[in-house]
Write a structure and sequence with these properties.
Residues 240-255, 263-297 have a biased composition (Acidic residues). The protein is of the alpha+beta class and 310 residues long. It has helices spanning 2-17, 21-52, 60-64, 74-79, 107-112, 238-257, 259-309, and strands spanning 94-98, 114-117, 120-123, 127-131, 138-140, 145-153, 157-164, 168-176, 185-186, 191-195, 207-214, 217-219.
Length: 310
């Protein structure tokens, strides 16, 4: 066994000592390395072809969807989040000097909602907002929208009208230094003018007359300040109608319930009146008879006296 091991070792030594051994090993290693590189490159080139086959006939939009599909409703969602704001830049320094005339309000609020002009009182269809120091202040858009009208009225001063979503309109009067024009798009909080004076509301001093309208009907702005535009609605007339009906029924009900007794009382009263009339007639007749007797007595007395003198 030892002799065989020695022979194999000697054989390897002889091979290693050959001049061609190391070049042969080098060439073999280089061939294996080159083969691996070529195989890797061919593998990269074949992967796209293999990936295209199962996806043939399938569009990217079908896999991932249309990227613009969810962008269409983005603007309406943002606009629905707006709330009705007071049309002033600094609400802390503003105060309402004239209220909206509400028929269901108490007498004190209704008195504050009357506007005196030309010796007549008019019901206010909006609110007059003034600064606590009486100075002019910046007027801002209460909501985002489109300016539909800008005009100058001899009684109301400069007037600005803006249309908004949900059939809402805002109305700004008694303003000056107007910064917008008809057709302009404004965002909530944008400056549109400054407060001024007008003839109709001269008692309010420097102010802005602000109105909020739904479907063209003026509503109380104070009820919807800081409320979502989706909550703005026109008050229904059913309540007023029901109240009027109840008042009419209340005024009619006592007469209907009291008809039997009332008719009896009226009959008794009429009979008493008839008796009184008869008694009054008899008394008048007696008085007339007594008067006639007295008249007849007096002439007789006078005639007897004349006769005695004779």
């Amino acid at each position: 066994m030892e002799e065989n091991q020695n022979v194999s070792k000697n054989g390897w030594k002889r091979i290693v000592r050959k001049k061609w051994f190391f070049p042969a090993v080098y060439l073999t290693f280089a061939a294996v390395l080159l083969t691996g590189v070529l195989w890797y490159q061919n593998l990269d080139n074949q992967l796209p072809e293999a990936s295209d086959e199962p996806n043939s006939g399938v569009d990217d939009d079908q896999i991932f969807g249309d990227p613009n599909e969810f962008e269409q409703d983005a603007d309406p969602v943002v606009s629905q989040q707006e709330v009705v704001k007071m049309p002033v830049a600094e609400e802390n320094q503003a105060e309402i000097v004239t209220k909206f005339y509400d028929h269901s309000a108490d007498s004190a609020d209704q008195e504050k909602a009357l506007v005196l002009f030309d010796n007549k009182y008019y019901q206010s269809t909006g609110v007059d907002i003034a600064s606590s120091d009486g100075e002019s202040f910046e007027i801002t858009a209460s909501l985002s929208g489109t300016v539909t009208e800008v005009k100058e009225d001899p009684l109301l001063g400069h007037v600005i009208k803006i249309d908004h979503e949900n059939d809402l309109q805002t109305y700004y009067a008694s303003v000056q230094d107007v910064l917008v024009e008809a057709g302009a798009e404004v965002k909530q909080g944008d400056a549109i003018a400054s407060a001024g004076r007008n003839l109709f509301g001269q008692a309010s001093g420097v102010h802005v007359h602000f109105e909020l309208r739904k479907d063209g009907v003026a509503i109380n702005p104070e009820d919807y300040f800081n409320q979502s535009v989706a909550e703005v609605s026109v008050p229904t007339t059913e309540e007023n109608t029901s109240e009027t009906t109840e008042e009419e029924n209340t005024s009619e009900t006592p007469d209907e319930n009291a008809n039997p007794d009332a008719s009896t009382e009226e009959e008794d009263a009429s009979s008493e009146n008839e008796v009184d009339d008869e008694e009054g007639t008899d008394e008048e007749e007696e008085d007339s008879d007594e008067g006639a007797e007295e008249d007849s007595v007096e002439p007789n007395t006078e005639s007897s006296a004349a006769m005695a003198n004779a």
